[in-house]
Amino acid sequence: MRKGGQECATKRLKTPQPATTPCPTAATLDQRLPLSKPLRPSFSQRTHKLHQYLAQWVYEACIPFHAIDNNSFKRFVEVVDQFGSDYRPPSQYQLREPLLKEKEDSEEAHTRSYIFEYIYKCIEEIGPQNVVQVVTNNASNNMEAANMLKRRRRGQTSIGNLPRFKRVIEKAKSFTIFIYAHHNTLALMRKYTKRRDIVRQGVIRFATSFLTLQILTEKNNELRSMVASDAWDQCKHCKTTERKAIYSTILSIAFWNWVSLCLRVFDPLVKVIHLVDRDKSPSMSFLYGELLQEKEEIKEAFKNHEANYHLILQIVDAKAHA
């Protein structure tokens, strides 16, 4: 009986229990519910967003509003749409150099002005001293451009316009203009130079530059003392940015070295100018001999380095045979 009772108890224990349904959670509900697809913005929404980006670029780049009506801009938009999403805009260099040049070459008429500007720019880029000859046909626009080029080069073929001398002359000119522009600075300068002016007018502009540099050299120590004085610092006109540049110029050893070189080159030429400007002009043979001697002095100023004086002598010869 005990054994049978144990078997019945075991059977009762092994009777399967009814399954209990777990309480649904938020995670299980999310897994059961189908995910809804994100809605694509409408055409008007996408257009408005695109207009916002375009407007932001127009504002930041300071582009005139009427540029939006330009036909070339409309063509650009059409081509970008045809190209697709792989389009990448050009770089600044591409816009500034090759693309702009293609535009000029394709649409700009080959007028005398265009040819003149193009050739002149090329000459300046490679250096006039490296140009042997410019060869064109005898078309009327080319011949007119050649005459324009001759007039421009003739106006610039001056020793004073050479970069090495022009920088020095411009600095000296800035100094004299600043001094004579204000009563206080002019009075201070005359106090240090003992009422000696630092500007003298010559017969020609070249001579004026020479005379001004000559006086500045003579009063070198006085002018350096002036800009380093307390009176210069206390002058209200001497507290500007321009004053700082002038202060650096007058106290610069390099500036005075260049002034000295200018005078060694200009002095022989001014002597010839004075000979020609006399009431009784000397003979041509005498002037020619003087000119040869002045050329030798110019060579000595550059220690006979031909690369330094070659262009100067070319200008002298051109003026002599003009």
UniProtKB/TrEMBL annotation:
Region (Disordered): 1-26
SUPFAM superfamilies from the UniProt entry: Ribonuclease H-like (SSF53098)
TM ranges: none
Residue stretches making up the DUF659 domain: 104-154
Biased composition (Low complexity): 15-26
Protein's recorded name: DUF659 domain-containing protein
